[in-house]
Amino acid sequence: MIGRLNHVAIAVPDLDQAAALYRDTLGAKVSAPVPQPKHGVTVIFIDLGNTKIELLHPLGADSPIGAFLGRNPAGGIHHICYEVDDILAARDQLKATGARVLGDGEPKIGAHDKPVLFLHPKDFLGTLIELEQA
Amino acid sequence: MIGRLNHVAIAVPDLDQAAALYRDTLGAKVSAPVPQPKHGVTVIFIDLGNTKIELLHPLGADSPIGAFLGRNPAGGIHHICYEVDDILAARDQLKATGARVLGDGEPKIGAHDKPVLFLHPKDFLGTLIELEQA
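^ inputs. structure came back:
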């Protein structure tokens, strides 16, 4: 079911400092910040060649990463995203095994304008998994 | 400096259950467990096409992931590994910026028989980073 690793998302408390760290210290290819008000985050994309790192910073009062940064003030890995061919088929197959899909179980349009779902970390080895229809 | 994402390492409390989750529930390509006594872990490799997930389980009394699993009994993402062309040049460049390299700063031979180093999570957005000479 799961295909490529689309990205690893790292929540960061200071976007400029995080961008400078990846660009200047680690020498990576770092995008400009991209505000995504619908998703409550500003994102910086880091192109690693085979996959991406996404640096996430809260945007607005209701950011989905606000609580995470409250618990992890220095930042940390927030989720990993796997690609799937058919997100509804993937969801139904996962739910049939008893795995929990977050929210109302309906895919939302994610940061890459593709349907996404999140899976409950307690059912997946303590890792928050995003599925994105490739 | 950093190149491809070599792998994401997830520490897991039960290797059989974790392998079944990735193989049966998530439909991924999962290896047999590979004991690596020198590294204090047993590893399962998951081939995602563009990169790998490595499921790590403690092996022996002095496992480097024992304390992490103590803090995260359900498991969790332990580190991410970036490839570099020249690990000594990367180390020296990072140390010159004030970033901390773990241990004595000398590369060890890692799980893939290549030289590796770990960087201090407090200097890298709360993420433990492994560098591996590609």
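Chain A touches chain B through 38 residues (CB under 8 Å). The two ends of chain A are 12 Å apart (CA to CA).
thumbs up if we can close this ticket
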